[in-house]
Amino acid sequence: MDNSARFRTRAVHAGHGLDPATGAHAMPIYATSTFGYGDAARGQRLFAGEEQGHFYSRLSNPTVRAFEEKLASLEGTEDALAFASGMGAASAILLTLLRSGDEVAFLAPLYGGTEGLLQDMLPKFGIRVWEAKDPADLRGRLTDRTRLVWLETPSNPTLRLTDLREVADLAHGAGARLVVDNTFSTPYLTRPAEFGADLVMHSATKYLGGHGDVIGGVVAGDAATLLDLRLHGLRHVGASLGPFEAYLLLRGMKTLPLRMEAHCAGAHLIAERLAARGDLKVYYPGLPEHPGHDLARRQMSGRFGGIVSLDLGDFAAAQQFLDALQLFTQAVSLGDVESLSSHPASTTHQLLGEEVLNAHGIVPGLVRLSVGIEDPEDLWADIEQALRQARR
Ligand SMILES: *Cc1c(COP(=O)(O)O)cnc(C)c1O
């Protein structure tokens, strides 16, 4: 596949052509744990890394490889490496690139699982983890021990924007690498490597898969680092993506641009109409009053994502609103073709405790909507009737 083709073309074609063995047009699911070497000398060369080839599916598999190549093409990076989940990807990055005595900085808030992994697990291995409020806070505290800076933009669930170029320059100035969790934006909206990010990770469970039927993760970046991750974080920890899941992700990614257009258009319409009521606090980077709007315009391809959050004032109103919605399923996860809703303070972010929740703006009235690809007018009618039922 010619990598100069446009994004939508690469979403369809990158990573696979006709199957060389059979001519199959769709990517076959290579359901095999192991691969015959052919002869002993080739086995030796494969294990020595002198010859490239698949030999065990924990390390690589043709269906999984096609997914990796498609994602690398869309992120515009040299390579990509798949994992069994987003958390598997995050674990592999941390376990491969850090050692005792190192420091990791992150820009809060992060996805709850990532923050748990950083704060609960790494200190046990002698790695210091610290949280920065914003790039200015980061600037004064980076040390020569800081190896990684980790961030999400827009962040979950308040959709705060972070300037990738600014943080990449700060991190590089201190000799650290920038890791960006690009799950919320997807490469259709933001390609962090273009702004200096060293590694880009995804929960492929969300928009990349897009249909709520698969758990997966992926890291994109330079080939040397990803080889290191494959030979250590993947081989030794073993959170490997299976070929069936890779097939679903490949299939989902072909329509990523089309789905993202629909998610973004629906979310934008809903955010504008919610804001126009004037009685609710609405979080959406596409609204001119959003504090990150100008940055989002520069960093997000002129579209602003499929997540809208709103503050209904208190927990009771949020609860009534969520229970009254018909088209939005109350569930964790996001980025599915179906609309989903959640109450972060009482579910995904419950463990953070009230003080941290308030510091991050995750107030009791906050509801997060993952806007699906249903007709936005139907979604809006549902939201309006649910707002009428919510005690105000
Ligand atoms: C879901 C999610 C993760 C974790 O991914 P899993 O596939 O559930 O392991 C990490 N980061 C973000 C932003 C997410 O939304």
UniProtKB/TrEMBL annotation:
Family annotation (SUPFAM superfamilies): PLP-dependent transferases
Keyword Cytoplasm appears in the UniProt entry: no
GO molecular function: cystathionine gamma-lyase activity; pyridoxal phosphate binding
Pfam entry (one): Cys_Met_Meta_PP
Domain of life the protein comes from: Bacteria
Keywords noted in UniProt: Pyridoxal phosphate
Cofactor(s) the protein needs: pyridoxal 5'-phosphate
GO cellular component, one term: cytoplasm
GO biological process, one term: cysteine biosynthetic process via cystathionine
Stored CDD domains: CGS_like
Modification type N6-(pyridoxal phosphate)lysine: residues: K206
Assigned protein family: Belongs to the trans-sulfuration enzymes family.
Protein name listed in UniProt: Trans-sulfuration enzyme
UniProt source species: Deinococcus radiodurans (strain ATCC 13939 / DSM 20539 / JCM 16871 / CCUG 27074 / LMG 4051 / NBRC 15346 / NCIMB 9279 / VKM B-1422 / R1)
